[in-house]
Amino acid sequence: MDDNRRKTEYLKKLESKKLKRSQEYKTLSFSMGISLIFSLVFAFFGYSFITGEIHAVPLLLAAAFLAEGLFQWLLLSRLRAQILRAGTVSRAVRLSGILLIAFIATGNVFAAAAGFTLIKRWRPLEYTMTVYAAITTVLVMLVSALNLFKDYVSNYFLPGMALLAALIVLYLLALLCIHCWEREGTVSKKLLPVGILLILTAATGNIFALLAGLLILSHYRHQGQERSIEWIDIVDRLFRNNMAVVGMLVVIFLLSLSIASTLTFDYGIAIDNDYSALLQPISLEYPFGTDNYGRCVFTRIVFGARISLIVGLCVTIIPTVIGGILGAAAGYFGNRTDNTIMRLLDVLYAVPDILLAIAIIAAFGANLVDLVIALSIGSVAVYARTVRATVLGLASSEFVEAARASGAGDWNIIFRHIIPNSMAPIIVRMTMGIGTAVLSTSSLSYLGLGVEPYIPEWGNILKIGSQYLETQPHLAIFPGLAIIILVLAFNFFGDGLRDALDPKLK
Amino acid sequence: MKRETVWGGPLPRARVRLYVRKMYRLPVYRLLLIVLGLPTAVMVAVKHLFFSNFTAYGAMKQELEEEYRASGLLEKLTEQAILSERNKARFLKRADAEERLIARAGKIARRKYEQAFRQELELRMKREGVRPPHLIDTYLEWIDHGLFFAVSVVTSLPMYLLIWIYSMPYAKYISERLFMMVFVMIGVFVLVFTILYLSPMDPARNILGANATPEKVAEFKRMYGLDKSYLAQLWNTGKKFLTFELGTSYVGNEDIAAALGRRFPITVQLSLAAMLVSIAIAIPSGIISAIKQYSAFDYIFMLIALLGLSIPNFWLGLILILNFSIRLGLLPAMYDAANLATLIMPAIVLGTGLSASVARMTRSSMLEVKNSDYVLTARAKGLSEGRVISRHILGNAMIPIVTVIGLQFGGILGGSAATEKVFNVNGLGKYIVDKQFIPDIPVVLAGVVYVAIVISVVNLLVDILYAFLDPRIKSSLKNY
């Protein structure tokens, strides 16, 4: 009896191991789950339990996502049976991936990603990257297309959309090229221009395309060699983690959107007052309504992404550089240098970030530059501590001793040996730090201490929304959701990056 | 027996000797010994200067010096050096001036001579058991001298108090931490003061209006001491901070100390309530996540925790007000000190962000100890699962958790401004933010500095608590 139970348990474990090894199964089950969750979320937005209102668009989306989720469920059970029985996936199931790709029309990017995974048996990493690059561009195009419902669009709207469409075509062609010219282990020379073209399109903010191009070039250079290249391994590990990919997708989508919005969105709609359209409810013309000056909140949020990303990046990079140098010097030189630097930083560490920022802004006024400086100074100490702890461990390691024995100078050792080896924890910290910086920026803006009020920053939008909480709650809900999504994306990405950079930690 | 080693007992002279020797090695303590025991230090220094040459060391050194001079070693070395320098110049085909060559050779010879002398001296000292006279030896000699010891105890009691504190590990640890904290506090004060001093804004213009006469502006500046130099202002404000007489605010002529005193308890109450909420949520869920690692619960809960980290506090507050106050009418939206129910929502809002990080920390630190040998031993002894988890895993995982809670408490105290604004709580954060628009510099300065001080004290208390609770720190303190 007990033996029997143990046997079934063992078989179950074996099965789940088999399933987990199949990337197709993993991606499909993930996208099914996400589709169903999204359908619930849309249903929640479509029908309010408290007031009993019904909104048509979210309900339609909910129905679509539900149908898509159910279809994926069916496909998943077929896939599961095939993997367990034969170990291979049949042609019919692979071809139904095309249907999944079509789901992107409703905005279901996860189903599309699963579809692309399903239709090709052997997928090099650059294939996956190009798929995500295409998906990101489609998302940007879909969001930009919402402008069609407005009275007027930006002067560059049509060229912008044409450019986006061209990019999508380019990515699809690149997929085809990769499919034709790359076999296991061999990369045709004909693929090189494609790789360079992909790298060039990274100017639109599409980091997936950049990675795809770099991967092609690197695979071409190292083809036929058995050795593994470290950064490719890291990317590979990162892309096995679904949540990290979602985080990365959101971040790159917002980055691409904020670059594309210079063409496809009209900044005037975001900042010019329009007294004929004050506090409009949600409609197709104004997807998130309008605020008390008649500005389209949706457009404001799109432009706000740019500011949040810029502030987030600056507030992470500046203190990392300053804190990194101080921490590295403290950890490497030790003794008196260490004591002096760390005691001085203790002073900075003792003041809470937000209060220090308030003091600096009180002294120098509320604007974007002061905000960046204030938040940067506040987090220097934290980064310096992280770097110091890492460097302290490395300074006594054997390879540093070897470098010193062969006559390398102090700064040479720091820049050539210690900094490259201590990058992993710092990069992870920075990724998470961007999320925190976005949160601090929006809270300071909400308090009126951030960027100037007319600038469409998410905290500023929320501040206005909070004044109309009773009558127009969506004005406060949507900018808040935007903040949460961006911060969550960075947190997911950071978590995934940590696991990918240091597989021992898992 | 054990007590005595930790807390120390009366101080016999032998122990005093030991501690003085130890303390003398550390620069800060050496300085303190000299400053606090100035009379003793003066006497010791006098004795050292006048009598140390008569010791065995002085005699030996003189003897050796004479011996070396007589041996003519220096001349021999110089000759050698000149020869080798010449050879070198010839080999490298470098024509140097003769004087420069000789000067260089002389320097080299001198260095070699001194090195040889020092080596020989050390060798002889070791052979005959003589040690070079250090100030510390004179110190110790005089401590042994009964009469002097009595005199020095009378004349420089503070030094002996310091030695007494040094002799007790806990007291030493605590006072060292306090000492460092005082410096950090002074640093914080100077930092914030300097930031506000550098401000290009002119509060006088903001308060008196754009068309105030220059005389009025000058009068305002004189009244608040703003016309003095940086150092004078720093000194005056520093004195005010020590005595808690902070003066009045620019606007409304409010007594700053009283205003801060009124608002401080509110913020503390809110922070404590938030901490209770977060501990109640975070620790149980962190424990379950760690014990059932990789289960559905673990994944879902850690997802929620990550979500909790990503939600802006003020937004969550607005959403709660929207749903529970405006739509359902269950809870009051605005804070009221008399009504505890108004504390629920702000506490939940502040608590969620905190509970996310505490739960993540609980999970990871429990996972760290979960597979250690002593847990296996506890299981092998046949302890029940509950006891293993509560005593052996959680007990040992508690320290990083308490650290995070302590740090986060500081974070709440300093970062509650946005939440206080949403719920209209009359706390410190909201007060500082409201006053910074003017900018009411004395209020901002006092608020920021005092909050930083309170946070540092809390963190210090947490650290000291550890020293008593954690057996690892306890044992390392014994050899401190």
Domain tally of chain B: 2
CATH architecture of the largest domain in chain B: Orthogonal Bundle
Count the beta strands of chain B: 0
Proportion of residues in helical segments of chain A: over 70%
Structural class of chain A: mainly alpha
CATH fold group of the largest domain in chain B: MetI-like fold
The first-to-last residue Cα distance of chain B is: 18 Å
Describe the structure.
The complex is a heterodimer of chains A (506) and B (480). In chain A, a hairpin with a 2-residue loop joins strand 1 and strand 2. A two-stranded antiparallel ribbon of chain A has the order 1-2. Helices cover 75% and strands 1% of the residues of chain A. By secondary structure, chain A is an all-alpha fold. In chain B, 27% of the residues are buried. The radius of gyration of chain B is 34 Å and the shape is extended. Chain B folds into two domains: 3-169, no CATH class; 256-478, MetI-like fold, CATH 1.10.3720. The model of chain B is unreliable at 1-9 (pLDDT under 50). Chain B is 80% helix and 0% strand. Chain B has 24 helices and no strands. At the A-B interface, helix 15, helix 16, helix 20, helix 21 and helix 22 of A face helix 11, helix 16, helix 17, helix 20 and helix 21 of B.
